[in-house]
Design goal:
The protein is built from 21 helices and 19 strands. By secondary structure, it is α+β, with helices and mostly antiparallel strands. Among the domains are: 150 residues, no CATH class; 225 residues, no CATH class; 155 residues, no CATH class. It starts with a helix and ends with a helix.
């Protein structure tokens, strides 16, 4: 009999008999294929968005970020102007935004010639914090035209050509508004000569500034995009692993259920080659139907995800060809593992099956090893097609992490099942024996739940956890939670001295300067002089002497700055300000918590006139009494991180929902496979009338072990991610909100129950099973 006839006579009926199992396999493949097609659409649309934003920005060949005055740089710019090279300047200065009786510090960036006179562009962070929209009118405090009403005409979602501090605090771009506060910070745009050549020339004149060519600016934005795609690709990779596992386990389950029919067909005889070809046609329905659906679903889903970030989609020919590339890739991947799974049929012995030797087909270690080795190759090809180098590296790290988690879960299972207390409980003893018998399948199920919980924690808890951890880190490490500047020091001193909201405060006089030492690349520093009587908010000394210990002419630098440039206690720094150049010996380091790492502390010699206040406040009620002052709350850093992470994780959350569905389906398939393998044993227990309670208790014990192991591993992984992120920004400890624990416990319980409810809802024909 030819395989096409066999397919019509047997396989279509077999497909109908196993329709629910096949439905879940197909659904898992639909989800995985949909995610794999969404990612290239997101990447391509965001690339176009970045390119468009770059075109709308200043097309200068070089952008220079200034942070202090430099006569040599100014002289070079004057020479360029005489050569006909175009230059323009954007001034950056702090101002206040007053909105609904709230005041917050932000940066006014003035000098954008591409904006019209009445156009005000506001950063996305400010929009979110102040609940503003296009068309709203705002008023700024601290500008020369004090009462001028400004109408928001555009929101900037992608910060281009903005000083670093402005990105954190928020900013407003204008054409010619002036701040009443003098600031040396700003941007210089230079056009008319090679950006790289200009960069090399100016770096010799002033090495303390930051220089970015147009390529540097574009690469910086694409680097951020690459990181976002890498994060999304991690979910896609695990989704592929689940779908491949579902396909292979589903085909294995189909073979186990159909092995008597297959044995009969082999004894008729029908060639195994034709049986396998007919099975291929049956499985193709589970591959090509999802493929068509995934193309249909991926386009509107990608559009919806991008719309959440205010990015539109252009359906060009290149866009559709890009989708087609990944369609072909998916066909190749799933047909490859279809063929691998069906190879198991070659090892079936029809005589043994007829005798009643049921179970999995014989294992082929070499083939299993080949499957494992093929996975990195498959994911590398996907990363290459995606055009993401970091995704390729992250895939390898993920696979190594999965192996480590797998081993960790195995050890946990081994430890739990060896506890001597369990041997006195019959149900538990039976459960543990069954777990050991099917250990691999059980561990894979827990691994699936672990990864699902991990991604949920990252997608829905990372931003808030990171903010809380960083805020607590600053609270523990910094001697202040407000930075303040004022035009009326006497009035501010009076408020700070008399307010019950103030715990301590320190007054520092400062001047911006530059380090001349060659080994220091970030040369801009601020020298802060401190008067001993005004030093109550004290920095933590990490090494060496405090400000007023030892030689008062010697200085303290932050530990972060010392570590970055390998500066040791006893080293001498050559520092130039607008008045003179002096040598200072380093006598100690202090904890800056990652904030203002370039601050230098020294005992006062009454050299500097600019003043800044470091305030440790218990409550913010005192702010109502403060007038004519610039105030920066340290929480602004945490808020900025929260805003950045929320933006970064927007797409991640949508993909996470799809992954949760895939994980649930995988769990159902895995439980179905385990039930098929143990159905005779379960039928005997039920028919003897002694096992209904034992089976119920078995489900409960397995569920408890699954939840304990998956919660432990997912929280460990999440803590590692948070610890790395927090340590890069502050010295704080990881702070996970208690509600997150409750949330993932409920999710894990629900997840386990879904699988068991589905499993127990199936009819168990015990007499038929025993008769077999």
């Amino acid at each position: 009999m030819k395989y096409r006839e066999l397919f019509k006579l047997y396989n279509l009926k077999n497909l109908n008999q196993n329709k629910w199992s096949m439905f879940f396999i197909a659904l898992s493949i639909v989800i995985t294929m949909t995610v794999s097609l969404i990612l290239p659409q997101i990447r391509m649309s965001k690339q176009e968005y970045i390119n468009q934003a770059m075109q709308e920005s200043n097309p200068a060949d070089l952008v220079v970020t200034q942070s202090f005055p430099s006569k040599s740089f100014d002289k070079a710019i004057s020479a360029y102007k005489q050569e006909g090279i175009q230059t323009s300047v954007v001034h950056s200065a702090p101002v206040y935004l007053e909105n609904e009786n709230n005041k917050m510090m932000l940066y006014l960036l003035s000098g954008y010639e591409n904006l019209s006179e009445d156009e005000v562009v506001i950063s996305e962070g400010l929009v979110n914090k102040q609940h503003l929209n296009v068309g709203d009118t705002i008023q700024l405090i601290g500008i020369k035209e004090q009462d001028k009403a400004l109408k928001i005409t555009r929101i900037e979602y992608l910060p281009i050509d903005v000083v670093d501090d402005a990105q954190v605090s928020g900013y407003i771009k204008t054409k010619n508004l002036e701040s009443s506060y003098h600031s040396d910070a700003g941007l210089v745009f230079i056009s008319g000569k090679s950006g790289e050549l200009l960069k090399k020339e100016l770096q010799t004149m002033e090495s303390g500034y930051k220089y970015k060519t147009i390529e540097d600016r574009r690469n910086e934005l694409f680097s951020d995009l690459d990181k976002q795609i890498m994060a999304l690709n991690l979910i896609s990779t695990v989704g592929y692993l689940l779908a491949i596992a579902v396909l292979i386990s589903g085909i294995t389950m189909l073979i186990v259920r159909s092995q008597k029919d297959i044995a009969t067909l082999m004894l008729i005889p029908i060639k195994m080659k034709d049986i396998i070809k007919a099975m291929k046609l049956e499985i193709n329905i589970l591959i090509f139907t999802p493929l068509i659906l995934s193309v249909i679903f991926s386009i509107p889903l990608a559009k919806m995800i991008l719309a959440a970030e205010d990015i539109s989609v252009n359906y060009t020919a290149a866009y559709m060809i890009n989708i087609l590339k990944f369609v072909v890739f998916n066909i190749f991947v799933f047909l490859l593992y279809r063929n691998v799974a069906l190879k198991y049929m070659v090892n079936l012995d029809p005589v043994l099956i007829v005798k009643g030797d049921h179970g999995l087909p014989k294992r082929n270690r070499l083939r299993n090893f080949g499957i494992i080795l093929s996975l990195p190759v498959v994911f590398s090809v996907y990363a290459v097609l995606l055009g993401s180098g970091t995704s390729m590296a992250s895939n390898f790290i993920l696979l190594i992490t999965l192996c480590a988690i797998f081993i960790g879960i195995l050890l946990l299972i081994e430890l739990i099942t060896r506890l001597p207390v369990w041997k006195y409980h019959r149900s538990t003893l039976y459960t543990f024996k069954e777990i050991k018998k099917n250990k691999l399948v059980f561990v894979i199920g827990i691994l699936n739940l672990t990864m699902m919980l991990w991604f949920i924690l990252i997608g829905f808890g990372l931003a808030n956890t990171l903010k809380e951890s960083v805020d607590v880190g600053y609270e523990q490490s910094l001697p202040y939670n407000y930075l303040m500047k004022t035009s009326d020091e006497e009035a501010l001193n009076k408020v700070l001295v008399n307010s019950s909201d103030i715990k301590t405060f320190t007054i520092m006089h400062y001047m911006d300067a530059k380090i001349e030492n060659d080994k220091v690349s970030n040369k801009q520093v601020r020298i802060n002089e401190i008067d001993q009587k005004n030093y109550t908010s004290k920095f933590k000394i990490t090494e060496g002497q405090d400000v007023f210990e030892g030689n008062p002419r010697e200085i303290l630098i932050s530990k972060a700055y010392a570590d970055a440039y390998k500066i040791n206690i006893g080293n001498t720094l050559e520092i130039t300000n607008e008045k003179k150049t002096e040598n200072y010996r380093v006598k100690g380091t202090y904890d800056s918590a990652g904030i203002n790492n370039n601050w230098i502390l020294k005992a006062s010699e009454n050299q500097y006139s600019d003043t800044i206040y470091l305030v440790r406040a218990i409550d913010d009620g005192f702010l109502n009494e403060v007038k004519d002052s610039y105030i920066a709350n340290m929480n602004v850093v945490g808020d900025y991180l929260l805003s950045k992470m929320d933006s970064f994780l927007t797409s991640f959350k949508y993909i996470c929902f799809l992954f949760i569905m895939a994980a649930v389906i995988f769990n159902v398939n895995l439980l179905s496979l385990m039930n098929d393998l143990n159905r005779k044993e379960y039928a005997i227990i039920r028919s003897l009338g002694i096992g209904k309670k034992i089976l119920v208790k078995q489900y409960v014990i397995k569920a408890i072990i699954s939840i304990i192991c998956s919660l432990t591993m997912s929280l460990v992984l999440f803590s590692v991610v948070i610890s790395v992120a927090v340590s890069a920004m502050s010295n704080g400890n990881v702070v996970i909100d208690g509600s997150m624990y409750v949330f993932i416990i409920l999710i894990s319980v629900f997840f386990v129950l879904i699988g068991n409810i589905f499993l127990n809802s199936r009819e168990n024909n015990d007499l038929e099973v025993i008769r077999e």
